[in-house]
Design a protein that fits this description.
Length: 80
């Protein structure tokens, strides 16, 4: 999915005359981002639960969802 979004953005950039191309992350980079998002998400969820910060819990949930999506992306990239 990341590759499809990058290709779409690159096409729009060419049509608009912008000389910016987006690179596609490799599997190692995706795994690193997945781990970082997972750790940050878990930390925010714990902090939000302990101190009753709703905004912290929401950001933690978003980060955990992002980690799950990145996990799926690494599995899809491995299979292709």
């Amino acid at each position: 999915m990341i590759h499809q979004v990058n290709q779409f953005c690159n096409k729009i950039n060419k049509k608009l005359g912008i000389s910016l191309t987006l690179s596609s992350p490799n599997r190692k980079t995706l795994k690193a981002f997945m781990m970082v998002h997972g750790v940050i998400g878990a930390s925010l969820l714990i902090i939000g639960a302990v101190f009753r910060f709703k905004w912290c819990m929401v950001l933690g949930m978003i980060s955990m969802i992002s980690s799950i999506i990145l996990r799926k992306e690494t599995v899809d990239e491995k299979n292709s």
